[in-house]
Amino acid sequence: MPEPVVALVVAAGLGLRYGGSTPKPALRLTGKALIGLSIEALAAGGCTDAVVVLNPDTAHHLTAELAVSPIPVTIAMGGSSRQESVRNGLDAIRSDEHLASTEVVLIHDAVRPMVPASVVADVIAAVAGGAKAVTPVVTLADSVRMIGDDPATSAVVDRSRLRAIQTPQGFPLDVICEAHAAAAESETSFTDDVSCAEALGHPVTLIEGSRLAMKITEPTDLTVANALWKIRNTIGHHSGRRLLRHVHHGE
Fold first, then answer.
1. How far apart are CA 119 and CA 59, in angstroms?
2. pLDDT-derived band of residue 60, with 50, 70 and 90 as boundaries?
3. Taking the CB of residue 174, how many other CB atoms lie within 10 A of it?
4. What pLDDT is stored for residue 61 in this prediction?
5. Is the model more confident about 15 or about 111?
6. What are the DSSP E strand ranges found in 34-165?
7. Packing angle between helix 117-128 and helix 34-44, nearest 10 degrees?
8. pTM, 2 dp
9. 18: which DSSP letter?
């Protein structure tokens, strides 16, 4: 049996910034829950199994959607933070004999439902090719300014060297497990998983992402996503096979 490629889908947040009583992963886009669309995209890109981390208080909103997943789903419960939720998902992978044989783990935010399958495939290929921490990125479209020590002052930032980080982010299983264990022991917080791996000295490989892989954070994001979905098949998807840059401790 071929080794699995496991997607760890983080869906344990409460969506406080979005508002409302429905958890964000259960919001509907084209008639399907965001989490269902995310798993479909990951499966289309080459993931063979999914571990979905849910919030115990909202899991009942999502079980029916997960029951019709195109790939097998294992459910884990989330923790008090995103990092703890990811660790719980990693524990679920390591405790399953089949899943633990994986060479590639992708960690994905459930509320990025439109990530192209080509981006998923490129992340998998980069890890399979020897990369230790991989993330899709996109250039910034807006001008950026940094607020000074005096909030009344600011300075322009050269956006040509800046990239916005997306998911899925890919790793060998042992690398990301060791990184999250070290972060827990040191009580260090990271905003994403490649930064967690980088803290242990692993270089971060950037690949080309897609603006379709937007994150649903606020109600206006879902409105935009609905509009994009209608035309997504006519948008030229970049293959993303070109490695943009290797970043290692500010290199």
1. 28
2. confident
3. 12
4. 84
5. 111
6. 49-54, 73-77, 104-109, 134-139, 144-147, 154-157, 163-165
7. 50
8. 0.90
9. T
d(CA 209, CA 214): 10
Return the residue matching tokens 């571990």. 51
Considering only CA atoms, which of 125, 118, 107 is closest in space to residue 209? 118
Give pLDDT tens digits for 155-192. Answer: 999 999 999 999 999 999 999 999 999 999 999 999 99
Q: Is 203 helix (H, G, I), strand (E, B) or coil?
A: coil
DSSP state of 5: E
pLDDT at 20: 58
> From CA 76, how far away is CA 59, in angstroms rounded?
10
Q: Which residues lie closer than 8 Å to 250 by C-beta, 6 or more apart?
A: none
Q: Which domains does the chain have, with CATH numbers?
A: 5-247 (3.90.550.10)
Above pLDDT 90, what percent of the chain? 75
The identity of residue 64, as a single letter, is: A
